[in-house]
């Protein structure tokens, strides 16, 4: 769904105009690590440019039972139909992998992580249970405390728009946050009396500016508390190597290269879609994990708002979900027009070795360290300076000259901006800049350089069309982009943030925006060596090895 369209029934957000030219347009790891994702909901948690900051509260809605697909083999929640394929093709599309183990191609992470969260969790995004709804400074989640034997111990994590997916040390997939579109992959219907879950009230924590327990009614504890997806949702002996999250969709990658997905993606009309069943009926929301049979030998997955990418052992890139901003690198026509089936993206002549995604744009790095971008580019976020600033600009896979041969090891994108980290420790940002997303104090000379900066109709700097080094941070190792904010980790294990911060997603102890990359303080990060960051819509998180 394009930015500017409300994508969740939870909130009605006042959002800003996408720019002078109306456009229709989560976290990428280091190459050897897991990829993250961005979300449409994040694009909606912003204000109109230059306008007043307005608070937005969740709309309370009754819990309801929907006719969604509750298992990998039983399809309901039918809203459409397509021409049936052959019985053999249907069986190949939907059957689960054999219980006999395939060859292991992906390493299973085993290092336990300390997880620190910050931002607003009005819909359970912080995973602190039904009481705690805000953390203005990075705060530990007691339910994920490695020192507590009864807690869930995370080894890898992915931020979606308003939900989170994590992999634990004992091979569980846990989720929390908004489940309206079934992004949590488990039943969260709650009809009983709300029970108080002791996840830390924050009363004693001066970092978080007080207690908000009594601000509103309790949240649904089944959504706001990290809980496991039932193990019987997957074949026996399944081992997971990575999870990824989009706006309202989630995916899991196994050590043998299989991919499971659940939730939904949305088109430009706001209609939910996920897959077709054996009868050709459209399953709008996939409530439990579903094996995507056509994806094999996959080594990495990542998500945009409403699309997903996968990289296989042959260096091929696959895409599925929404293609309305050319996330597949091309238009789909004729028999190949079904976007819910993974399609090959013709990125480059050489094999790809790494993929990443922004909200509506994508990236790949080939084996010669050339970097390609494609998809939405109205603000130059896909890296093509020529079409940046145009109305509804979409680009096919195109080399980003300023990033080629620089040994880029991390890429990520937000709604309209992007960031990269090189092996030498440089962090470069580009795209939309009017909320401080890029974290750079541009010089007067740079601001007057038309090959670098594009101005809006008021002659205010709006777009940086060239990847530009953040000069105030040295030796970066990781970067993550929210819709309009950026979180960075340096080699010393410190975290920085910049951009739009009205929901506290910058972790700076306030709701203010930040224009230049600023160090994140607080007692919980003081003695923690951080190595990773993730950014959702109105929340963020940082992690480091547990001591």
TrEMBL record:
Family annotation (Gene3D superfamilies): Regulator of chromosome condensation 1/beta-lactamase-inhibitor protein II
Sample GO molecular function, one term: guanyl-nucleotide exchange factor activity
Lineage, top ranks: Eukaryota, Fungi, Dikarya, Ascomycota, Pezizomycotina
Keyword annotations from UniProtKB, A to Z: Guanine-nucleotide releasing factor, Repeat
Protein name: RCC1-like domain-containing protein
Region spans: Disordered: 1-105, 196-235
Organism per entry: Conoideocrella luteorostrata
Ranges for the RCC repeats: 113-170, 171-256, 257-314, 315-368, 369-424, 425-492
Spans through the membrane: none
Biased composition (Acidic residues): 204-218
């Amino acid at each position: 769904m394009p930015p500017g369209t409300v994508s969740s029934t939870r909130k009605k957000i006042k959002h800003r105009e996408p720019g002078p030219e109306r456009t229709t347009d989560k976290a990428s790891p280091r190459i050897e690590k897991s990829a993250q994702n961005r979300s449409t909901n994040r694009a909606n948690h912003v204000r109109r440019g230059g306008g007043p900051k307005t608070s937005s509260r969740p709309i309370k809605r009754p819990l309801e039972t929907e006719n969604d697909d509750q298992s990998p083999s039983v399809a309901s929640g039918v809203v459409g139909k397509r021409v049936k394929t052959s019985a053999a093709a249907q069986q190949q599309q939907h059957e689960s992998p054999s219980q006999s183990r395939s060859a292991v191609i992906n390493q299973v992470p085993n290092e336990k992580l300390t997880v620190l969260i910050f931002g607003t969790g009005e819909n359970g995004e912080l995973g602190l249970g039904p009481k705690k709804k805000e953390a203005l400074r990075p705060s530990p989640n007691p339910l994920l405390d490695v020192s507590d034997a009864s807690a869930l111990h995370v080894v890898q994590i992915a931020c979606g728009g308003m939900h989170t997916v994590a992999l634990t040390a004992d091979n569980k997939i846990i989720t929390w946050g908004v489940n309206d579109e079934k992004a949590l992959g488990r039943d969260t219907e709650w009809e009983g009396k709300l029970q108080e879950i002791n996840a830390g009230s924050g009363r004693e924590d001066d970092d978080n500016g007080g207690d908000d327990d009594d601000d509103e009614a309790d949240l649904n504890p089944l959504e706001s508390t990290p809980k496991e997806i039932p193990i019987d949702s997957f074949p026996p002996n399944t081992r997971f190597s990575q999870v990824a999250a989009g706006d309202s969709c989630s995916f899991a990658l196994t050590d043998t290269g299989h991919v499971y997905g659940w939730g939904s993606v949305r088109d430009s009309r706001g209609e939910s879609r996920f897959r077709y069943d054996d009868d050709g009926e459209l399953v709008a929301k996939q409530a439990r994990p579903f094996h995507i049979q056509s994806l094999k030998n996959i080594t990495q997955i990542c998500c945009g708002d409403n699309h997903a990418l996968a990289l296989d052992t042959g260096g091929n890139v696959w895409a599925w979900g929404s293609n309305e901003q050319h996330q597949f690198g091309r238009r789909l026509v004729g028999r190949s027009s079904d976007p819910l089936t993974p399609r090959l993206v013709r990125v480059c002549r050489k094999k790809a070795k790494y993929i990443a995604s922004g909200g509506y744009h994508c990236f790949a790095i080939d084996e010669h360290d050339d970097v390609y971008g494609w998809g939405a580019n109205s603000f130059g976020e896909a890296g093509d300076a020529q079409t940046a600033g145009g109305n509804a600009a979409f680009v096919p896979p195109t080399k980003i000259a300023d990033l080629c041969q620089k040994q880029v090891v991390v890429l990520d994108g937000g709604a309209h901006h992007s960031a990269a980290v090189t092996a030498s420790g440089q962090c470069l940002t580009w795209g939309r800049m009017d909320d401080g997303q890029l974290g750079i104090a541009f010089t007067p000379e740079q601001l007057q350089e038309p090959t670098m900066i594009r101005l809006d109709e008021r002659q205010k700097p709006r777009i940086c069309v060239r990847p530009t080094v953040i000069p105030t941070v040295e030796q970066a190792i990781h970067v993550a982009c929210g819709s309009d904010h950026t979180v960075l980790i340096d080699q010393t294990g410190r975290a920085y943030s910049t951009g739009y911060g009205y929901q506290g997603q910058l972790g700076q102890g306030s709701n203010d925006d930040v224009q230049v990359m600023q160090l994140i303080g607080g007692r919980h990060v003081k003695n923690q060596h951080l190595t990773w960051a993730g950014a959702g819509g109105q929340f963020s998180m940082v992690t480091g090895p547990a001591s």
